[in-house]
Amino acid sequence: MDRTVDVIVGVVAVGLTAFKDEVVLWFKTRLGAHKDLAGEWDCIWKKQLLDDQNRAAADVPDVVRIDKVAGALFKGRGPNYLVSGRAAHRMVTVSWYDAKNNDLGGVAVLKQDDKEPKMRGHWCQYSGNGEFHGGEVTWIKKAEMG
Questions:
Q1: pLDDT by residue (tens digit) across 58-95?
Q2: Which of 11, 65, 109, 114 is the most exposed, fewest CB within 10 Å of its CB?
């Protein structure tokens, strides 16, 4: 019996050593590694205007609140839309749809800043008139009160 236990312990040790990075990532995502995403974010959506007049991009400011973070997944809301996403390795993907008109949706891919509570990236959205819109986006986390 003792020999069987030694063999099992040896096999588990070899497996944990071989898959150390995957095991660490699994525990980190289960133990709240992305809790820093929770809270309110000031967002600036720079809309690239794709027309013949070469107009400057329009800035659309709003606030997104991330209400729930569970491992690498999160959910929240903007002024009139719901968001959900996933975080991994300082990269964040976000998707959303209009809370009133479920046919309007979009996606953003953001990179978290290593030094500041800020994320930058690009977004793309399908509009109700059948066109795609997109551009750059910056999220800056609001200071937490309390």
A1: 788 999 999 999 888 999 999 888 999 999 888 999 99
A2: 114
Q: Which amino acid is at 140?
A: I
Cβ within 8 Å of residue 104, ≥6 positions away: 81, 97, 98, 125, 126, 127, 128
Same domain assignment for residues 128 and 63: yes
Within this chain, do residues 16 and 44 fall inside the same structural domain, yes or no? no
What is the number of other CB atoms lying within 10 angstroms of the CB of residue 106?
20
Range of the domain at 19: 1-31
Question: pLDDT at position 98, please?
Answer: 73
Please state the pTM of the whole predicted model. 0.71
Give all strands (DSSP E) within the chain, no chain letters.
Answer: 39-47, 58-70, 73-77, 81-88, 91-98, 105-112, 118-126, 132-141
Where does residue 51 fall: left (phi above 0), alpha (psi -120 to 50 degrees), or beta otherwise?
Answer: beta
30 vs 8, 16, 23, 38, 39, CA distance in Å? 25, 17, 11, 15, 19
